[in-house]
Amino acid sequence: MATSFLRREEVQRRLGVGRTKLVSMVESGEFPKPIKVSGGVLAWPDTDVQGFIDSRIAAERG
């Protein structure tokens, strides 16, 4: 399966957090840093975002 890139707004929607919280999570190392894609645009690989979500679910459910 091909990896796609997600822009900040989509990452925020998937995580259910605002911009400030997302920035805080990235700065603290809790969430992966974005990468530069075409034209210097920052985005996250969808696999990084889904991996984070899956790990959170696993941690909550034991």
Concise overview:
By secondary structure, the chain is an alpha+beta fold.
Please give the alpha-carbon distance between the first and last residues.
28 Å
Measured by DSSP, the beta-strand proportion falls in: 15-25%
Rg is 12 Å
Helix content: 40-55%
Mean pLDDT comes to 96
What does this structure look like?
The chain has 62 residues and is α+β, with helices and mostly antiparallel strands. The chain has one domain (5-61). Helices cover 55% and strands 16% of the residues. It has a three-stranded antiparallel sheet.
Question: Which features characterize this protein?
Answer:
62 residues, alpha+beta, three-stranded antiparallel β-sheet, 3 strands, globular
Task: Write the topology of this structure.
Layout: E1 5-6, H1 8-15, H2 19-28, E2 35-37, E3 41-45, H3 46-61
Antiparallel strand pairs: 1-3, 2-3
